[in-house]
Amino acid sequence: MGLVARVIEAAGVPTVTLDMIWAYQNLVGMPRVAAIEHPFGRPLGDVGDAGTQRAVLRAALAVFERAKAPGHVEHLPFRWHEEPSETKWHPAEPSPIIALLKRRRGEPGAADR
Amino acid sequence: MSAPDAPREVDPWRFTGSFLAGLLSRMIPAQPAWTSIPWTPVRKPLSRSRVALLSTAGLSMKGDPPFDMELERRSPMRGDPSWRRLRADATSASVEANHLHIDTGYLLRDLNVALPLDRLRELVAAGEVGAMADTHYSIMGYQGNDTSTLERESAPAIAEAMRREEVDLALLVPV
Questions:
Q1: Considering the entire predicted model, what is its pTM?
Q2: Same structural domain, A74 and A100
Q3: I need a surface site. Which of A27, A57, B36, B128 has the fewest CB within 10 A?
Q4: Is B3 in contact with A5 (Cβ distance < 8 A)?
C-alpha cells in the first residue's frame, strides 16, 4: 500500500495510510502514516464496535491536519481489547506463500502463524 | 473495546506471530531505502474536504468481477494487481472479499472494521468532514514479488479517478 500512497500523493491527492505495520516506512516512504496496533483484517476496530471504529477514523483523519512534512508517522493510542494469544486473524487455510515457505522450512502442514 | 492510552510507540509485531514478524522484518532495511517522499499539501480543513477510502482487502461490488485468487494459488509469488470501484453505500452484504492472507469473515459481518463507510458518513453528518466521495476503492494487498502493475497502472488509475471526483483527501487502509 505504501507504493500506492506515493503514487496517489504524487498525483496531487494528499494521503494518510492507517497502517498496522508502520515499520514498512523505511522500505517504502509513505507521506503520512497513522500507526495502529490492531490485528490484520480489523484496522478500525472489532465487529459492531462503532465507537472504536469512529475514534480510529477520526484520529487517522486528524493526521492530515497535523502532518507538516513528508514521512510523518503518528502512533495512535488505541489498544486492542484482546491479548494476541486470543486474537484470531489468520485465514482458515495458510496463504499460498506462507504454505510454500513453511514447506521449504520443513514444516509440512504447519499452521499459518 | 479498544481504549485510548498514554502515548507510546505502536508495536507492529504484536499480533503477527513470530514467523511473520521475522519474515516481514527481514524485508525492511535499517535505514530508509528511499531518498524522497512525495508530498501534496493539504489545502482545506477537514470540515470542508471530500474524503475517499482505499482498502487493500480485495473488495469488489457483487456483480463486478472479483479479485482473482486462482492466480496466487497457481503462483504464490504473484497477486492480482487490479483495482475496483466501491459505491459509497457499499455494505458487507453488497461486497465480495477475496484475500488469502486474512480472515475476511470479520469485514463480511461489518464492513466498517476495514472500510469505515458508515463511520465516515457519520463524521460528514456531524460536520467534522466536508463530504464523502461517491466512489471508494479497493486493491488486493498481496502482490508477491512484482508490484509493477499495481504501481504503474492501478495506482495511477485510482489517483486519476479520485481527481475526477475532486477528492481532497485519500485515507488508505491496509488490512
A1: 0.93
A2: no
A3: B36
A4: no
